[in-house]
Write a structure and sequence with these properties.
Mean pLDDT: 88
Radius of gyration: 25 Å
Shape: elongated
Largest sheet: 4 strands, antiparallel
Structural class: alpha+beta
Strand content: 5-15%
Number of helices: 8
């Protein structure tokens, strides 16, 4: 139950006794509880890297429940010990279980633009290493995700581009 649900339940309660003093006391107790609940802090959601979010989403996509996703993560880490997710999972099991159980946010990866001689590197297709340099004026033809790239994407295209990467400031 989240805080808003509890507030809704408390606001819907009312004393239904024939004794007026009882109802007044009951209503006062409910008001006091409401004041206390409204002062509670919302629990902070666990922050997971994109690779963990991808693993969870893949499990949800095939209809797995939370327990199955956690079991799959354990099995996957044993079967593929050198995979990027497995390496992260081995040292973050409790964090992963908490995130799957109670919700999470995805850590935003730093984005970069690669600028060489006033031209911008554009990834032609997401998930592939096809890329080319385009003039600034051409950028309007491309979605942000085509030229605002993560470090790993830039290096997968060609590591020689990395020295030309410039951080993209968040809006």
């Amino acid at each position: 139950m989240i805080k808003q649900e509890l507030i809704g339940i408390l606001e819907g309660l009312e004393g239904d006794s024939f004794i007026e003093k009882y109802n007044e006391g009951y209503d006062q107790a409910v008001r006091d509880c409401l004041i206390a609940v409204k002062q509670l802090d919302e629990p902070k959601k666990t922050v997971l890297p994109k690779k963990a979010d991808d693993f969870i989403k893949e499990g949800e996509g095939i209809g797995s429940d939370k327990v199955d996703i956690i079991d799959s993560a354990i099995s996957f880490a044993r079967a593929m010990p050198n995979d990027e997710f497995s390496l992260w999972f081995k040292s973050n099991r409790d964090l992963f279980v908490d995130a799957v159980s109670n919700g999470y946010k995805v850590k935003k990866e730093q984005l970069y633009k690669v600028v060489i001689d006033h031209k911008y590197l554009v990834q032609l297709f997401s998930g592939r290493t096809d890329a080319r340099l385009v003039e600034y004026e051409e950028l309007t033809n491309w979605h942000d995700s085509a030229y605002k790239l993560t470090e790993s994407v830039i290096k997968s295209i060609d590591e020689r581009y990395w020295p030309f990467a410039v951080k993209v400031e968040e809006a």
